[in-house]
Design a protein that fits this description.
By secondary structure, this protein is an alpha+beta fold. The chain has a single domain, classed as GMP Synthetase, Chain A, domain 3 (2-Layer Sandwich), CATH 3.30.300. β4 and β5 form a beta hairpin.
């Protein structure tokens, strides 16, 4: 587990260092989305882990260039999640579609995060089961204007 944490840190450091001004600074407003991603992450980190709902917990976050990434874990193993989906008459694709819609509504429905995305930032959610099986990765990189 410690090796994974170190690898994640190294990857995040490398990607952040590689983010160019073009990736970070809006050419129209000169707004630095990389700095804002770091600020969002700094605000989020002290309140983690945080329950998203009765089944999912956000355990960590990272700011990599213009992207804020949140890592969330299901309370169930992959087998348990699949069993619950079967009992509910739902496929994993249905679940992922619902998760995408909810993530977009959450990010784009909040003025601060919607503005961050509209200026070139990205919000990502990486979901895995309690036994570390990836479920999906969701990236919100555009929000419609109201």
């Amino acid at each position: 587990m410690k090796g994974l944490a170190i690898a994640t840190f190294v990857a995040a450091s490398t990607a952040s260092a590689a983010a160019s001004d073009e990736d970070c600074v809006s050419k129209f407003t000169k707004f630095d989305v990389c700095n804002t991603a770091k600020e969002f992450q700094a605000e989020l980190a002290p309140i983690l882990p945080m329950r998203m709902n009765k089944n999912v917990t956000v355990s960590r976050s990272a700011a990599i260039g213009p992207e804020l990434i949140m890592y969330a874990t299901w309370d169930q193993t992959d087998a348990e999640l699949n069993e619950r989906l079967t009992l509910a008459g739902m496929t994993k694709d249905n679940l992922i579609h619902t998760m995408n819609s909810m993530a977009r509504s959450t990010v784009c429905g909040q003025e601060e995060t919607a503005a961050f995305v509209r200026l070139g930032g990205r919000m990502s959610y990486h979901y895995a089961t309690s036994d570390a099986v990836p479920v999906t990765m969701i990236t919100i990189d555009e929000c419609p204007r109201n």
